[in-house]
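Chain and backbone:
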Amino acid sequence: MYRRRFLRRTGAVGSAAATVGLAGCAGVGGEPDGGEPDPDVGMLASAYQPREITVAVGETVVWENTSARAHTVTATAGGIPDAAEFFASGGFDDYESAKAAWDADFGGILESGDRFEHTFTVPGAYEYVCIPHREGGMFGTVIVEE
C-alpha cells in the first residue's frame, strides 16, 4: 500500500479527512440513500468506459477506478481548449508536472474505487490519458457543448 494513501484512509491527514468521512453519515450529497452517484466514466484494466462523453458547459464529470489496476486522469498537453483549466488527478498544473510526479512517487494515483471529478466551464474537446497506460492506448475525450 502507498504511504500517502494509507494515511488518507486512516484519517491521519487531519481534521479535513474526518469531516469528509462524516459527510456521508449526515446524508450530504450522493444518491438519496446517502451513497455516491454513479460515475460518468469508469476505468477498466486499460481503457476508460466510455472512451468519449458529451456534457454541457458547467457540468461535472466523475471518473471512478473500477478496475484493480492503478490509473490517473490527466489532460494532455495541448489537448484542451486554450481558455480551459488544466485537470489531473492529483491537482497538477500541467502535464509535465503530473508525469514527473507519477514517475517519482505515483503522484495522481487513483486506486480501485477512488474517484476524481472536474467541472468543465469552457466548450470544446478535452483529451485526457492515464499516464501509466498511455502507451497502451488508455485515453479518452470529454466534449463540452454550450
Remarks:
- The chain has two domains: 1-36, 38-145.
- The CA atoms of residues 57 and 146 lie 5 Å apart.
